[in-house]
Amino acid sequence: RLHATDVTSSSFRLVWPQLLSLETGYYSLEYGPRAEPARKRTQQVSGAHTSLVLSDLAPETTYEVALIPESNVHYFPPQTTRVTTLAAELNMAWAHPVQVLISESGPDSFQVSWAPVLDSVASYQVLYGPLPGNSVKVLQVDGRHNSTVLEHLAPNTTYLVTVTAIYRSGKEKSLSAKACTQEGEPGQ
């Protein structure tokens, strides 16, 4: 059955069973916003394909999708599905599979990484400081990146790390994690 995966605010991936091959035909793909049938787009897809990403879509829009196998051997009925794109900016963005992960911990550094990376995020702000305490440092990270290394830390110390996604619209969402540095080696 034709279905969609990896749905975002502007794209989704269509996946379908192998019905045709390169030799037996091609697919006609028709898709458009359900509310505006006149804006339907059509494209041809090789018979060898079983998936395709549709992009440049409108957010929060339900698309009607029809995949018509144009076979010179068998008749296959058109496969249809409906897909609704996500809101342009998910207020629940951090409720998706979001994590702040701490890795590669050493006596004076550790790596912080986070997911997902969203197009709607302009930059990330990483705040970190030892617990307990109120000395906080701030690091700005480009919105295309999803990890950074925090250095010059104190050994054997618990740090509170807060990653804030700063959206292009000005909204912010934060998530915190605790991390511990390793004990320092004597003589280092």
Task: Outline the structure in words.
By secondary structure, the protein is mainly β. It folds into two domains: 3-84, Immunoglobulin-like; 100-181, Immunoglobulins (Immunoglobulin-like, Sandwich). Helices cover 0% and strands 49% of the residues. The chain has strands at residues 3-5, 12-15, 25-33, 41-46, 51-54, 62-71, 79-84, 99-103, 110-115, 121-130, 137-142, 147-150, 158-167, 172-180. The strands form four sheets. The protein has a four-stranded antiparallel sheet, with no helix packed on it. It has a four-stranded antiparallel sheet with strand order 11-10-13-14, with no helix packed on it. Strand 8 (99-103) and strand 9 (110-115) form a beta hairpin. 14% of the residues are buried. Residues 91-97 have low confidence and may be disordered. It comes from Aegithalos caudatus (Long-tailed tit). This is VWA1 protein. One of its GO terms (cellular component) is extracellular region.
